[in-house]
């Protein structure tokens, strides 16, 4: 009889019971609706133990890879520790390098703490020690790098971003927990077309995903569209051009809303540009990161242009209410 | 007799139908406002629940669930005309996927049978 551990309590699960039924019998109500594995309201994560694959049907593959499952159709075959959100240990690591990418974006490189592992494109939650203020920042590095890399945009009067810009110095210790997020590369089909679109520091996770895909031997076309209001807001242009020279399957398109685009770039609205350049997105895997309004608009565009909902991965950089 | 859901090919067929159906709904200016939730993933999962239900696949929805699940939409003005649009998208989705006419008719009649519950009458 498998045991289910949830919020520090153990519950026994009978052989013909689902996780949802078992917890309900013990008076613990998880959110649910259809109770038949279609609506995904009961999405839960196995923190320890492997959920049966039958309990992961219809889930995005990046969720399945992180052991998410549907509690209403999960008849556990082994002991499971489950949680609605993942709880992660707190890490602390030294800032080894801090440099400006342009006048409003700073790059931080942090030591990789022992036993911290992540997928390129996920994010961590930085904590400011003085008041426990917490903000999410995406990882631009890949796991074979000897550092964690973050790209931080200066937000006017932003508490965390201003502190990172003006106060934090090389050699300081930074605290964080994580990683989270389901925006990362999966090597299931190396021939597939990947489309990466982001504005501003939305480039951070995309840069990680791009390098990760290439390192894992992705062969199919990879299109990266990076947008900014105007040319001075773009960054990593030379590095990205260099990757495009080295890997012929990679195409980089810098985009600006106002003024002239750099060579090989486009002027216009980032929500429209990928469609204008590529036409149909049929069969693509799509990654969208950054400004929430742009991400949501692009999600709808990508879906209408033929991408399956299952293949659209996005990280809207939702900001905390003031 | 096996359900339409099984005759269509079960879960795989529904997964194929979800994208086609949801694309039609989002492309229909007359009904799209009911579906403009923040989270497209959750909304797509609900479309899958809808398709599983009307094809007779595994579900445990009751008439009461349908009343409660759509009541907030009635407040937004949901009526027969929107219901008819959805039936139309359902029909053309199944036709596009090559489903036989008699199966389509069965699905539509199941969907039709929920009309009073969905519209809370
Ligand atoms: C999953 C995720 C990943 C993220 N990754 C990154 C990343 O890689 N790089 C990065 O720079 N940021 C990223 N962010 C955003 C980041 O977490 C913070 O929201 C941002 O740095 C602002 O925090 P702050 O404390 O400086 O501002 P706050 O003190 O929280 O905000 C100050 C004021 O500015 C407003 N505001 C905040 N952000 C914006 C904005 N973008 N545009 C307009 N107004 C704003 C607030 O509403 C408030 O009124 C990510 C967010 C999420 C959810
Ligand atoms: C044809 C008959 C219909 C059936 C059988 C049906 C069935 C369903 C089901 C099973 C769900 C998922 C409920 C859940 O698990 O949360 C749902 C949700 C929903 N339905 Fe319907 N539906 C029908 C008609 C309509 C119509 C006509 C509209 C609007 C034009 C509509 C709009 C919605 C919306 C917006 C949701 C999501 C609500 C939410 O976000 O919670 N439905 N429907
Ligand atoms: S309750 Fe609907 S998928 Fe589990």
Question: Would you write up a description of this structure?
Answer:
The complex is a heterodimer of chains A (322) and B (121). With 322 residues, chain A is of the alpha/beta class. Chain A folds into three domains: 3-83, Ubiquitin-like (UB roll), CATH 3.10.20; 90-180, Beta Barrel (Elongation Factor Tu (Ef-tu), domain 3), CATH 2.40.30.10; 194-316, Rossmann fold (3-Layer(aba) Sandwich). Chain A has helices at residues 19-25, 61-64, 159-166, 203-215, 237-246, 273-278, 292-304; strands spanning 3-6, 9-12, 43-48, 68-70, 80-83, 90-102, 105-111, 123-128, 133-138, 147-153, 173-180, 194-199, 222-228, 250-256, 266-267, 285-290, 312-316. The radius of gyration of chain A is 21 Å and the shape is globular. Chain A starts with a strand and ends in a 6-residue tail after the last strand. Chain B is built from seven helices and no strands. Chain B has helices at residues 4-8, 10-26, 40-54, 63-75, 80-96, 101-112, 115-118. Chain B has a single domain (4-118), classed as Globin-like, CATH 1.10.490. In chain B, helix 5 packs antiparallel against helix 6. The chains are: A alpha/beta (322), B mainly alpha (121). Chain A binds chain B through residues 33-41, 57-58, 60, 296, 299-300, 303-304, 308-310, 312, and chain B through 11, 14-15, 18-19, 22-23, 26-27, 38, 40-42, 44-46, 48-49, 52, 57-61, 65. Bound molecules: flavin-adenine dinucleotide, protoporphyrin IX containing FE and FE2/S2 (inorganic) cluster. Protoporphyrin IX containing FE (HEM) sits between chains B (31, 34-35, 37, 46, 49-50, 53-54, 61, 69-70, 73, 78, 82-83, 86, 111, 114, 118) and A (33-34, 39). Protoporphyrin IX containing FE sits between chains B (31, 34-35, 37, 46, 49-50, 53-54, 61, 69-70, 73, 78, 82-83, 86, 111, 114, 118) and A (33-34, 39).
């Amino acid at each position: 009889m498998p045991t289910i551990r949830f919020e520090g309590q153990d519950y026994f699960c009978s052989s013909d019971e689902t996780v949802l039924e078992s917890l309900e019998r013990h008076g613990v109500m998880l959110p649910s609706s259809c109770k038949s594995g279609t609506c995904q309201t009961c999405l839960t994560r196995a923190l320890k133990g492997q959920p049966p694959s039958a309990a992961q049907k219809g889930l995005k593959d990046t969720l399945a890879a992180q052991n998410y499952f549907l509690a209403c159709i999960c008849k556990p075959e082994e002991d499971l520790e489950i949680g609605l959100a993942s709880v992660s240990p707190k890490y602390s690591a030294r800032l080894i390098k801090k440099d400006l990418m342009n006048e409003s974006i700073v790059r931080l490189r942090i030591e990789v703490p022992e036993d911290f592992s992540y997928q390129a494109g996920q994010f961590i939650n930085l904590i400011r020690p003085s008041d426990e203020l917490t903000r999410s920042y995406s990882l631009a590095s890949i796991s074979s790098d000897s550092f964690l890399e973050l790209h931080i945009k200066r937000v006017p009067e932003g508490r965390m971003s201003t502190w990172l810009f003006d106060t934090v110095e090389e050699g300081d210790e930074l605290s964080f927990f994580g990683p989270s997020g389901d925006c990362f590369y999966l090597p299931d089909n190396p021939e597939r077309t990947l489309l990466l679109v982001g504005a501003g520091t939305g480039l951070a996770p995309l840069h990680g995903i791009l390098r990760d895909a290439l390192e894992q031997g992705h062969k199919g076309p990879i299109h990266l569209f990076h947008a900014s209001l105007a040319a001075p807001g773009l960054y990593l242009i030379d590095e990205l051009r260099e990757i495009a020279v080295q890997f012929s399957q990679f195409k980089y398109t810098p985009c600006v809303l106002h003024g002239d685009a750099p060579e090989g770039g486009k002027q216009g609205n980032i929500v429209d540009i990928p469609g204008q350049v590529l036409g149909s997105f049929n069969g693509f895997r799509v990654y969208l990161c950054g400004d929430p309004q742009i991400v949501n608009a692009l999600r709808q565009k990508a879906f209408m242009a033929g991408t399956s909902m299952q293949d659209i991965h996005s990280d809207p950089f939702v900001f905390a209410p003031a | 007799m096996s359900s339409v859901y099984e005759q269509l090919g079960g879960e795989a067929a529904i997964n194929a139908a979800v994208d086609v159906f949801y694309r039609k709904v989002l492309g229909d200016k007359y009904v799209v406002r009911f579906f403009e939730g923040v989270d497209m993933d959750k909304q797509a999962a609900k479309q899958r629940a809808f398709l599983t239900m009307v094809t007779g696949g595994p579900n445990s929805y009751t008439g009461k669930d349908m009343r409660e699940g759509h009541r907030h939409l009635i407040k937004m003005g949901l009526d027969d005309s929107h219901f008819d649009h959805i039936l139309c998208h359902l029909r053309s989705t199944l036709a596009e996927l090559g489903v036989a006419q008699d199966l389509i008719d069965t699905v539509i009649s199941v969907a039709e049978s929920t009309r009073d519950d969905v519209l809370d009458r």
